[in-house]
Design brief:
Blueprint (H helix, E strand, L loop, with lengths): L49 H12 L6 H10 L2 H15 L4 E5 L1 E5 L27 H13 L4 E5 L8 H14 L3 E4 L2 H11 L3 H11 L3 E2 L11 H5 L6 H13 L3 E8 L5 H18 L2 E8 L17 H14 L5 E2 L3 H12 L6 E4 L18 H10 L3 E5 L5 E3 L3
Parallel strand pairs: 1-9, 1-10, 2-3, 3-4, 5-6, 6-7, 7-8
Antiparallel strand pairs: 10-11
Helix pairs in contact: 1-3, 2-10, 2-11, 3-11, 5-7, 6-7, 6-9, 7-9, 9-10, 11-12, 12-13
Bound molecules: iron/sulfur cluster.
Length: 408
């Protein structure tokens, strides 16, 4: 086991020092967090004394880049309040105007047929299942028309890893929408693009070029989960590898498409896995600058195969700390979004003081997280109130984080 310079080991409860390696919660005080069960590669924990944590946070407030080891130390330190304050300091530096934005859009799941077998998903159906579907174009058009009528500016269209849909299906779908509607098309996460390119026997670059030509505006950062093998293989055995996910984003950025980046926590990953995920994103952002935002969310387990292997869901404090450390560590990301869908509006409001500058979208429809227990809903007025009450100016934005309207 890796050890720090003194006070805590990885796997120690950040509050009482009880060693909780291989556990999800501390048996002494019930505190929930991720225990250590895999080896860390290339990272060693630096000292987590009060002084060293203070030094790390001072660096953050001075806009100095944090190392991966320092990020790990923060996540293990239990210094929740100070980490939140430092993240807020970074957020103020990046967004001194005091505005917080939101989006009105709709998730459209064009198919639920999937071969990825994610253990956190209740939404998908195996090929040949009687409940499997591919939405008719007309149904998609009607959803888009409704979105536009409700003031929406974009659609986030994603689906399962369908084993038969090739590039011509996606080109036809994009073309048919583009010809009819003035709406931002934020579509097809990297795992979908890997599958459609493979099925079509074309390179990732050709697939992305053709999708862009057919009307694709940007790519969602879905399907990232945790960009660390073998954790990824455990929770999404049929999904693309971490390197493939990153390669899709690299090529997309090179081809002029902006993308978001996500991270799913609470699926049994270690703290080191979380840092490794952030490190992968920061490296690629240094190379391309094509990520417009980072969006961490906590997995929803209700009724999923994963539920039996996880004792409890990620708590709000753990989520907020991860979000705050992400804000500090991802110094080359301008926008950090809180996931109100999985944390609720009250936690989302606090997150605005812990580094987030964006509360996500109203999402007129969502399927994967909702079918696994995410039960929060929000109207435009709800988001405006949450933002205003936290002391910020609410502004509506588009999918690429361009604000265009101050809501009344
Ligand atoms: S989360 Fe997406 S990729 Fe994974 S099984 Fe569900 S539909 Fe398939």
């Amino acid at each position: 086991m890796f050890r720090d310079s003194g006070e805590k080991r990885i796997g120690d409860c950040p509050v009482c020092n009880h060693n909780t390696a291989h556990r999800i919660s501390c048996p002494t005080n019930g505190m929930q967090f991720v225990g250590q069960d895999t080896k860390m590669t290339g990272m060693e924990v630096v000292g987590t004394s009060q002084r060293s944590i203070a030094r790390i946070l001072e660096k953050a407030c001075s806009q100095e880049r944090m190392t991966s080891e320092e990020a790990l130390s923060l996540l293990l330190s239990g210094e929740f309040h100070r980490i939140g304050q430092a993240a807020d300091c970074v957020r103020v530096h990046k967004h001194p105007e005091g505005k917080v934005s939101f989006l009105i859009d709709r998730n459209i799941s064009y198919t639920n047929v999937c071969v990825a077998r994610c253990t956190f998903c209740n939404f998908y159906r195996k090929p040949g299942h009687e409940e499997g579907y591919i939405l008719p174009h007309q149904t998609i058009f009607e959803k888009i028309e409704e979105t536009l009528q409700l003031g929406g500016t974009g659609v986030l269209m994603q689906g399962g890893m369908h084993p038969e849909l090739k590039i011509d299906y996606f080109e036809d779908l994009l073309n048919s929408i583009r010809q009819r509607y003035p709406i931002h098309l934020h579509c097809f996460s990297p795992p979908e693009i890997v599958v459609l390119a493979r099925l079509s026997k074309i390179s990732l670059r050709e697939a992305i070029r053709r999708l862009k030509k057919a009307g694709l505006d940007s790519i969602p950062g879905g399907g990232a989960e945790i960009l660390v093998e073998p954790m990824r293989r455990r929770i999404s055995p049929g999904k693309c590898t971490a390197q493939e996910w990153l390669e899709v984003m690299r090529v997309a950025h090179q081809e002029g498409l902006l993308t978001t980046a996500t991270m799913m926590i609470g699926g049994g990953e270690t703290v080191q896995d979380r840092v490794e995920h952030l490190r992968n994103l920061r490296r690629l952002q240094d190379e391309t600058g094509g990520f417009v935002a980072f969006i961490p969310w906590n997995v929803q387990l209700e009724g999923t195969p994963m539920q039996a292997s996880i004792e409890s869901q990620v708590g709000s404090l753990e989520y907020l700390t991860l979000l705050a450390v992400s804000r500090i560590y991802l110094d080359n990301f301008k926008n950090v979004q809180v996931s109100w869908l999985t944390q609720g509006l009250k936690v989302a409001q606090i997150a605005l003081l812990w580094g987030a500058n964006y509360v996500g979208s109203i999402m007129l429809e969502e399927n994967v997280m909702s079918t696994a227990g995410a039960c929060y809903t929000a109207s435009r007025q709800d988001l405006v109130q949450v933002i205003s009450a936290a002391g910020f100016v609410p502004v509506q934005r588009d999918t690429l984080y361009r604000t265009f309207q101050k809501p009344s």
